[in-house]
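#lab-general

N.A. 3:47 PM
ok so I finally got the sequence cleaned up, no stray characters, all 130 residues accounted for. can someone with queue access submit it? mine expired

B.Y. 3:52 PM
send it over

N.A. 3:53 PM
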Amino acid sequence: MRYDNDRELVRSLEDVVLLKDRFDLPVTCAAAAAVEDYMAAIDLLLSAWPGAEVLLDRALAADPEFALAHIARARLLQLQARMPEAKAAAGALGGSRTALPRASAGTSTRSRCRSTAPPATHWRSCALTP
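B.Y. 4:20 PM
back already:
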């Protein structure tokens, strides 16, 4: 399903439960457990502790379309010099999304771009303003 404008999207998703991260920012994801695993994995990744890969895999098992977990996994694999796997992980969602699924009324343009833009073109195609 495609949406012609933000108002139409908001009307169609009024009953969607909005998941948020620990900074109270909206996260486009289908499972609260996936968001928790993602946040724990990011903590481990940023502090260079082991265990992030297992948590990211678990987050992706809970929601296979969780874009933030896909790109975090790609970054982790890149840091481990596992380049073919990193490229595959970064392109896992590719351009397969044509609408803005599971977005919510409070989701900013930046957040929607994170979840819908192909990873390789994300920084060029998304406005970084709410």
